[in-house]
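re: ur msg from earlier - yeah i can do the flavin-adenine dinucleotide complex, just paste it... oh wait u already did. ok heres what im feeding in:
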Amino acid sequence: IGALRWHFLLQSLQDLQKSLCQLGSCLLVLQGEYEPVLKAHIQKWNITQVTLDAEMEPFYKEMESNIRRLGEELGFEVLSLVGHSLYDTKRILELNGGSPPLTYKKFLHILSLLGDPEVPVRNLTAEDFQRCRPPDLGLAECYRVPLPVDLNIPLESLSPWKGGETEGLQRLEQHLTDQGWVAHFTKPKTIPNSLLPSTTGLSPYFSVGCLSVRTFFYRLSNIYAQAKHHSLPPVSLQGQLLWREFFYTVASATPNFTRMVGNPICLQIPWYEDAEKLHKWKTAQTGFPWIDAIMTQLQQEGWIHHLARHAVACFLTRGDLWISWEEGMKVFEEMLLDADYSINAGNWMWLSASAFFHQYTRIFCPVRFGKRTDPEGKYIRKYLPILKNFPPKYIYEPWTASEEEQKQAGCIIGQDYPFPMVNHKEVSDHNLQLMKQVREEQQR
Ligand code: FAD
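and the outut:
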């Protein structure tokens, strides 16, 4: 977890703390390993019930079974609730006959058998909150939400995205006001390089639990019910939420989901190991402005558009550098505000054509891709100000400008900004052949 996400998480906790206080309750934050922390507080605070979110990630599955064991030992009840996802993935898997293969189409069919997701258990009342007063208010200061300095989190790395339910709800309301936009939302038509997100930008809020996916799902259903026509999965907004469910379901049934080796759904590819090239990609020094602008946005803000994720993921893996998707996934995990075990790995496998996606001959061009929706290069000028004075015709490939034109733009390629690190045409043709070979061998 990188600094941006730490800040986002702490802001979210602050916001939750504030809301609970307004309801006459309080949030106590306990720090440390969960077992000793629980052991130390169960008796002290006379805790009779521990509640947690059902999760797919192996770490949390193990945590749940350890807490259950502790519950039996120390005599508290454990409730694990399906809240982070819309559906109980176990139910979906049962209807799929136990385990994958599962396609999105088949997945939608199973969901149609299950019906709409359950609504939240019940709404809590002010009285519920008042019953949940902290055991000893005098102690509350020791259990306050930590500040970034308490955790040695660098203060300078702050994303413009602010954490918390309040912000998340505002963002949600803002988008839902435009009912036409919601009803006709078509994901592939959204723009990866707009200066403000062209999609909802709600993923960080779902990710750390500031916003409920059920709230979003039902608000969308209400809008669809009133619209004459609306888009459908996989491209609609509800369809996006269902992709999330899809990856949770497959991840929960796949061993080693975040790795290539030992992962039964993942194509085994002999990727190159090249720390220097990986570093250039990560630190926005590939020499392709479109790729570097995206990686800069990721570094500075912790969020990038889905198609921008496509561009940089394809470039790192099957498109240009032929470096393992696991490396890219780790970088995303560190930098994304919405970093998620199942969704991140699932999408990286998709983009590298290691699983789910088989049209591997479609390779994104690091020059033409961005140009289509931003011919002027405003996005590049924002994130790579060193290039801002190049005229539009050079902004995606500044190395093609003459020496004189580079001087005029105040940026000499090879000195102030790198030359492209690869010849895209050559490496992508070569990689395509490699991919064909790997697939043929493994099919045999
Ligand atoms: P919207 O288009 O507004 O969609 C609404 C919600 O649907 C999102 O908030 C998200 O929860 C869900 N969603 C949308 N697209 C997808 C998708 N393809 N897969 C699963 N759920 C989706 N998303 C993460 O939340 N965490 C990750 O770690 C993550 N890693 C990714 C890595 C790669 C290589 C790629 C290509 C995509 C990744 N995504 C990840 C999926 C997707 O890019 C983001 O969920 C989306 O861009 C978030 O922006 P939004 O909230 O505006 O999405």
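cool cool. The first strand starts at residue 49 and ends at 53. ping me if u need the other ligands too
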